[in-house]
Design goal:
This protein has six helices and eight strands. The protein is of the alpha+beta class. The chain has two domains: 77 residues, OB fold (Dihydrolipoamide Acetyltransferase, E2P) (Beta Barrel); 154 residues, Recombination protein O, C-terminal domain (de novo design (two linked rop proteins), Up-down Bundle), CATH 1.20.1440. The strands form two sheets. Strands 1-2-3-5-4 form a five-stranded mixed beta barrel.
Length: 244
């Protein structure tokens, strides 16, 4: 069958002399692998630039409804023209980070329009906002957990700033966890602040550069505990270098 849909490129690898194999999260069918021939040639109908991480594309493909199959792209063109992500090193680093996290966490091969729209909305904000983006990757990690099924929670209506975050249980607690996998009250308070703040205002949460690095490390540990096979994330060191 022929599939016409919009997709977000998570990853692409060169194949043979001029081909590309890409993992694309589609609006209609979830995550699938596609192959495109001749994209790295001088007269390519689908230029290689379309296959960069977090590009949003309209595609037409010969599709088989089989999770293990590879689908051949027939046509592909840009659906969202990013004005700043490709040219701003900080925005580009956040987009690469998002792509790596998505590739390691999102495996579903069925439609999930709510998740798709969340990713599109985050990318648009990353591209368009004039506000600082130093906290955006942290907010993204926390918001994504809601779609993945392990969002942090608390039983307290008005949690205090003296709570620990238990990474294994995914809860905020007033008692220090027995496990070493926890975040101390200072870091846990920043998590609570980010969770209660809309993405458009996450820049207003005051976090120092060193604390941001600590919170990111703990959130990645949180993912490791709840996402099978999640490890070896490479992009955080890029964020550390470029973020203020």
């Amino acid at each position: 069958m022929q599939l016409k849909t919009t997709g977000i490129v998570f990853r692409s690898v060169k194949y043979a002399e001029t081909s590309v194999i890409a993992d694309i999260f589609t609006e209609d069918k979830g995550l699938h692998t596609f192959i495109a021939g001749g994209v790295r040639s001088a007269r390519a109908r689908m230029p290689y630039s379309l296959f960069q991480p977090m590009m949003v594309v309209d595609l037409v493909a010969y599709y088989r409804d089989d999770p293990g199959s590879m689908n051949r792209l027939r046509e592909m063109r840009v659906a969202e023209v990013w004005q700043r992500i490709p040219f701003d090193i900080r925005r580009g680093a956040v987009a690469l980070f998002m792509a790596e996290i998505c590739r390691k966490c999102i495996q579903e091969t069925e439609e999930n329009r709510e998740l798709f729209q969340f990713l599109i909305h985050t990318l648009r904000w990353l591209d368009q906002t004039d506000h600082p983006i130093a906290n955006l990757h942290l907010h993204f990690l926390l918001a994504l957990t809601g779609f993945l099924g392990f969002q942090p929670h608390t039983e307290y209506e008005n949690p205090s700033g003296n709570m620990y975050f238990d990474l294994k249980e995914g809860i905020f607690t007033t008692e220090r966890p027995f496990s070493s996998a926890f975040m101390d009250p200072a870091g846990a308070n920043k998590i609570l602040e980010l969770m209660s703040t809309p993405m458009e205002f996450c820049h207003e949460v005051a976090i120092s550069r060193s604390d941001r690095k600590t919170v990111l490390g703990k959130l990645l540990q949180f993912y490791e505990l709840h996402v099978p096979g999640f490890n070896g994330v490479n992009t955080p060191y890029i964020l550390e270098m470029v973020m203020e």
